[in-house]
């Protein structure tokens, strides 16, 4: 199936061809014809699936047929949770709409409001906005919605997570009742369905990848390590493997700043991107990372969500996220659009609960690998392992146990029943069989023994 058969006109098809896309992604196949037809839509699609083009292309197609926006008017409104995502969506609108006469603009907080008000006076066909700034502009009468035809909520789940529900409700109240509504979300939680109830009419529902499935092209690995040794381990891996572009996640803004300092002390060029940074600093860090001047970008979850960086080869979870779903979003930054990528997580024994949540969510056990020189000192008590250190039977070697040059494999789906008790080694521990064999620590990948299959 080609883009030409989805109902898009020549100027849009030319722009798409210029991007080098020849086959629509599954979300694009499902969304483009339905949106052109004017249907409401609820789509479960994560970043990396081509969802932005999935709603932008048909939006451009529809708007290209109507009357241009009058003064202060907006014909399509795209709401996004973060400034970065807003900027990226606006970039896509410009790119795919370059052969059309439509106008577009992006507004978000953290920058001066006056230039935004000035530009909005002439009206825009497509406005991309974060909710807070949009409300400010509306309250100052800089933007009007009488001509509004389409509303898009992008990453709706994240907007709710970030507490934008009240802003969104206020915005919905001032929009004309007759409009097309498109909602994109990584997951369809109850909250999302509740929001959709009052908003979306008879929607086409699309789900392109089962929620919370980690991309098959991402090789995942865990490095058990002591907390204090995490920065040194990161520098060691970057230098040893000669990683050129690494996105690193920390749990806190302060932690991100501190890590940048530590990396720079190791002569590794790094920048932080998080909510306490000014918008210009965030944009500068991202641009530097994209063009190769910044080798390591250290980010917190909220800001990193939705970042589109082509073919990012390496993601490191310096801290595990508190919310298991964020693990999926984080590693979704690599291995995108079919490219292979690596996601490494540093795990301390204190993070055992977060790890258990993540493995339950992705329904897989991630390969563990202790890096020589960084063996965790804080060994977990045997009772915590839920495994008796008895001598292994001969045949009971660890299921997968291979020496490696650093390449791990994709996490394996669990074959077990979720109700059966977990019998797996804790972080920092080798499988029972290996402990008994008392082999010297070598660089190895090992996997946990699968739990028995319950009938
Ligand atoms: P998104 O999920 O919207 O963040 O898009 C992820 C990436 O896929 C972006 O870098 C797009 O440029 C790229 N992309 C979108 N559609 C296609 C397509 N049909 N073929 C190849 N790449 C695409």
Q: How would you characterize the overall build of this protein?
A:
With 455 residues, this protein is of the alpha/beta class. It folds into two domains: 3-207, Rossmann fold; 218-384, Rossmann fold, CATH 3.40.50. Helices cover 34% and strands 17% of the residues. It is built from 17 helices and 18 strands. It has helices at residues 10-18, 26-36, 51-63, 83-96, 114-120, 131-139, 156-161, 165-173, 190-197, 230-241, 253-265, 279-290, 301-304, 324-331, 352-362, 382-385, 432-437, and strands at 41-44, 74-79, 104-107, 124-129, 150-153, 180-185, 204-207, 218-224, 246-249, 270-273, 296-299, 314-317, 341-347, 364-365, 367-368, 401-403, 412-413, 444-446. Strands 3-4-2-5-6-1-7 form a seven-stranded parallel beta sheet, with helices on both faces. Strands 10-11-9-12-13-8-15 form a seven-stranded parallel beta sheet, sandwiched between helices. Strands 14-17 form a two-stranded antiparallel sheet. It is globular, with a radius of gyration of 24 Å. The model is unreliable at 380-455 (pLDDT under 50). Bound molecules: adenosine monophosphate. Adenosine monophosphate (AMP) binds at residues 21, 23-25, 28, 47-53, 308, 310, 336-337.
């Amino acid at each position: 199936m080609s883009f030409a058969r989805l109902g898009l006109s020549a100027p849009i098809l030319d722009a798409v061809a210029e991007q080098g896309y020849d086959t629509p992604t599954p979300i694009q196949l499902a969304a483009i014809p339905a949106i052109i037809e004017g249907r409401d839509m609820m789509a479960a699609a994560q970043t990396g699936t081509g969802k932005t083009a999935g709603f932008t292309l048909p939006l451009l197609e529809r708007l290209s047929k109507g009357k241009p926006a009058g003064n202060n008017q907006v014909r399509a409104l795209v709401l996004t949770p973060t400034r970065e995502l807003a900027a990226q969506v606006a970039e896509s609108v410009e790119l795919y709409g370059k052969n059309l006469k439509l106008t577009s603009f992006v507004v978000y907080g953290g920058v001066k409001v006056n230039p935004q008000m000035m530009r909005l006076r002439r009206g825009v066909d497509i406005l991309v906005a974060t909710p807070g700034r949009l409300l400010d502009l509306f309250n100052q009468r800089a933007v009007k919605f009488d001509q509004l035809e389409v509303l898009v909520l992008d990453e709706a789940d994240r907007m709710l997570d970030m507490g934008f529900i009240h802003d969104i409700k206020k915005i919905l109240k001032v929009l004309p009742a007759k409009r097309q509504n498109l909602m994109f979300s990584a997951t369809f939680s109850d909250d999302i369905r509740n929001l959709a109830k009052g908003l979306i009419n008879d929607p086409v529902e699309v789900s392109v990848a089962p929620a919370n499935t980690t991309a098959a092209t991402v090789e995942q690995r865990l490095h058990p390590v002591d907390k204090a040794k995490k920065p040194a381990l990161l520098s060691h891996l970057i230098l040893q493997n000669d990683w050129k572009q690494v996105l690193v996640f920390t749990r806190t803004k302060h932690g991100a700043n501190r890590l940048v300092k530590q990396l720079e002390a190791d002569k590794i060029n790094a920048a932080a991107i998080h909510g306490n940074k000014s918008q210009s600093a965030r944009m500068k860090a991202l641009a530097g990372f994209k063009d190769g001047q910044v080798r390591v970008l250290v980010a917190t979850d909220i800001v990193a969500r939705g970042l589109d960086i082509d073919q990012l080869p390496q993601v490191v979870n310096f801290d595990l996220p508190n919310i298991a779903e964020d693990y999926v979003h984080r590693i979704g930054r690599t291995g995108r659009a079919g490219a292979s990528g690596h996601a490494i997580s540093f795990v301390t024994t204190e993070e055992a609960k977060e790890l258990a949540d993540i493995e339950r969510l992705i329904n897989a056990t991630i390969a563990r690998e202790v890096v020589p020189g960084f063996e965790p000192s804080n060994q977990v008590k045997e009772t915590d392992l839920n495994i008796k250190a008895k001598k292994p039977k001969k045949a009971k070697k660890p299921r997968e146990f291979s020496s490696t040059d650093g390449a791990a494999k994709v996490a394996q789906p669990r074959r077990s029943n979720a109700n059966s008790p977990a019998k797996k080694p804790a972080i920092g521990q080798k499988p029972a069989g290996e402990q008994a064999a008392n082999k010297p620590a070598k660089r190895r990948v090992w996997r946990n023994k699968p739990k028995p299959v319950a009938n």
